[in-house]
Each structure stands twice: as C-alpha cells, then as structure tokens.
Amino acid sequence: MNVKEGFKTTIGTLFRLFPLSTEPGLRAFGNPREDSPVFVTSNFQLTVKRVSKYLRDLDCHLLVAPTNGTNVWCAAMGGMFNAHSIVSVIKTSGIGESVNHRTLILPQLSAPGVDTELIKEATGWHSRFGPVYAKEIPEYVRKGFQKSDDMRKVKFNLMDRLDAGIGVSLAFFLPIAVILAIFWRGWLVEFIILGSSLLLLMYAFYPYIPGKSGWAKVLFYEALAIIGLLIYLFPFGGGSTYIRNLFLGAMVFVLLIGIDFSGVSPLYRSDLDPLLDRIGIHRIGSVSFKGRARIKEEKITLDQSECIGCELCYDVCPKGIYDMDESQNIAIMVKPDSECVACRACILQCPTEAISVRARR
Amino acid sequence: MSSYVFMKILESAPHRYDAGINMLSLGRINRLKKEIAENYISPGDTVLDVGCGTGTLAILCAERDASVIGFDISPQMLNIAQRKIEERHLGEKIELREMGATQMDSAFEDERFDKVVSTLVFSELYSDEQKYVLRQTFRVLKPGGLLIIADEVKPNSLLKRSLYLVVRIPLAVITYVFTQTTTRELREIERAIIDAGFGMIFTKRSLLGSLGLFVAKKAER
User: Is pLDDT of B116 > 70?
Assistant: First the structure.
C-alpha cells in the first residue's frame, strides 16, 4: 500500500461523514474472462478499498459508479447512487466490450436508489442484488450466485459499531479538541479520555441499551449521568467542582455522540433527519434526505392482489420485513411496519407497484 | 489569479453563477468566451455547447448568427439560460436540452455540427467520462469541424504550479467545507483529445497557466 492510499484510507475511516472519492470506472480482479461476473459499487475511497479486498481472489470485473465519493447506502438514500450513475459508468467504461453477458450484480444496499428498469431501458443491462456485505461475495459466487437469507441481513456487530461510531463522531470531536487546545488546555486530557471512553461505551453497548429509537437511548445515558451526579452530590457531599464538571462534560458528550445515534446504521431510522427536514435543512452536502425523512409519518402497505411473486421486496429489504408464501407464491409481511426503516427500496423495486406508502392515521 | 473550485458553490446558487465565475476569473473567462465566438464561430454554423450552464457562450455564438444546441444536466442553470435567451430574443437560434453528457450517444446523429464548444465542463467529469465525451464529440462533428474547450488546467512550469497551489488549496478547502465537492484541473487533456481522433490546431494558456484554451480539428475526408 502506498503512502497516499494509506493516508486516504485513514481519513476515510476516521471522518466517515465526509465524502472521499476515488476515480470511477472499470477495475479488473484476477483474470476476468468474457463470462466473468460484473459487480458494482460506489466511488467512496474506503468502500472501493474494502470491496477490492474481498474480490482479490476472484476472476471478476468491478464497476465503480460515480456517487460523489459517498458510500453505497448513504448515496442510494441521498440520491447520488442511482440509475444515472450506473448508466454513466456502463457507457464510459466500455464494459460491454469486455464481457459477453449483460448482468450487473449490485450491492443490496443500493436498492433504495437504483431504478433497475431505467438501467435496462438505457443500456440493456439486467441487474440483480448481491449480498449486503462485500465479504460475503466469494461465498455468493461459490454458491452459484445464490443469496442465503443471512446475506440479506444487515448486521451491526461490535466491530461495525465501533467502526461507525469512530467514523461519525470524530468529525465533531476534532474541532472541539482544537478549541480546547488553544483556550482551555487544562481540559484537553480529560476531553480526550472522557470522549473516547464514552464513544466506545455507547457504541459497544448500543443493542443492549433500553430505548427503541436512538434518542431514547441517549436519554437513558443522560439519566445515568444525572443519577451518577446526584449520588455524588448527596451521599458523598459533592465537594469537588472538578468532578461535577466532569459529569456535566459527560452529559454534553452523550448528546454529541448520540445526535444521530440511530442514523449510523441501515438497521434503524434516523431521528435527526426528520427534524432537520422540518427546520428546513433538506440536504447535507450532496446527500439529500427530504423524501425519506417524511416517511416516518407514513405506513408501508402491500397489496397482495397485485403481487406476482418476483421476490424482489423480500430480496432487498435490509430488515427482513417480507417473506414469501411458497404455497400461493406471493410476498407477505412478517414483521410489523414499526420495524421498517423507510428506505423505500421495496417500493422502488416492486415491478407491479403492489407496495405503497400511505399516511398513518 | 483564478481558481474555479468556487464554481461548485456558485452552481448551488445558479442565480449568482455568472457574476461569481466572472469575478473569480477576473473577467478572463468572459473574455475567453468572446474570443471563442469571434475567432471560431462563423455565421450559419451549427454549434453544440456541451454543458452550456447559464448560456453565456451559446448566446455569443447565436449573436454571430450561428444556430446553437446547448445541453446541461442542471435544470436550474438552464432556467437562467432560458431567461437570458428570451431577453435577447434569440429563442429561434438556441435550443436548450436538459441531459447529461453520457446521453450524447442517442441524442445527436453523426456529423451534425460544425463546431462543438465546452467551457468549464471537462474539469468536472471523471477521466473515463472525458474520453467518452471526446469520442462522442468526434462522432457528431462534420469532417473539418472544430472542437473548442476552455477549462482550468494544471500549470506546466514548477514555479507557476507552486504559485497556483498557494491560491488553490485554501479555495479548495473552503469549497469542500461548503459543498463537500471539488473540481479537478484538467490533466493530459491534449493527449485525450488526440486519442479521440482529433488533430490539435491551437492551444493557449493564461499568464499563470491555470486557464487553458484548446482547439482541435476533425480531419477533412
């Protein structure tokens, strides 16, 4: 790995909130032949790097679509990863001349943004959705391009949580650390220790903290801090201003870390986006969240009489809301719609418009 | 001294784009556009403006009695172009289309245009996209037709490059903070133009070397 790549990877890992692009276009892995599979991903530098790691031992093509340097899920949700970006890279890369088939394998988490019908109309390429995680791709290929249920599921295990937590929070921490370093140098060490331990703690215990939404979990932590402070103040007399300030600092940290606590994973709906939308901020950088922020007030419905049993909704839902009723060959909703993260992937992919959103009454 | 990274901020506020871009380039981009229209556009020409934005160059060409088709991916920019065109009663001379550069393959037939012009567009395309647009441009030009590109380029002497970076880096940082995007100066555009089949006939760089004009010709049959 050269120095520039390494630097970019570090920045991409630590400051996930900011886009970091890499050149879109066609990449080859192993010795791709005319019938080798064609995978697609976004042009976020870190994404391409991680996907490449798992494609290394396969013979395949990878199309890096222009998504303004944003990762697959955020770009698909924010309108940067769409049929346009894929059509653009199909046409400009000349992939059609390198292979004798016309099938793209898209990341499952691109389903909220990519209208596969449009790609087909514009270029003749078919699309199918591969696994959520790039690390499942070798297994997916070995199984003859069959996806297991496990490959459809978004996980949020300890490493993912720490990875996301650090990537999202550091961008808030750094400017504060700089200000402290200039004006209140005495608090810098406390800031770093308190901030990083709360960050690790909050993300490590994420699934075990009571509260359904991210903000409810934040409230729980704030309550813990207040209880801690009260215990310190009363039974122990609470003599030291220093300790009291540490408690207050911790409360501020919890807020900072948790401001979009549930927005960091495709498993949960963001609490922050609907609020920003309401106060008139519809986009951050190139990622817009207007439509999906509003869906919170609405309800997904499935009209089974329109269902043709194509399994697409079942295939793309990151939460496993749908299952297939094999005897009737139609989709059924097996989880309550409160589980839905409002990504709209099923609505966009359903070929018969059997799935729609209605206002919640 | 100029850098067009600010262009991105201006694009998010199209009503300020014209004034802003002109100011950033110290008036040079408008001079360059006038120069393109005066030196290369003849009455009766059919002209394609790739990424016409707010239509400044398309209007200059139409005023020289050329008929122009301009396309751009941004509907906001096209709205402004439309208004400017109507104010000057050039509606019959200029046709605007909302489309992206990669739709060129199906939008225009072969050998339709005498001139293809493009200003401050190529630096926003990724490298495969630039090559694609050049190939398409070659296809839609008549034999003997001209391609005229004006854009931000990387200065070629070390001294000019260092001076240029001193100005560009802070601008790029500010732009990134506001828009999380940046443009990249063109590199090796001449190579790509030649690879697409053209012959270079004229190149010019501004004093500090950051603004370049490239004119290339599709050979006569």
Answer: yes
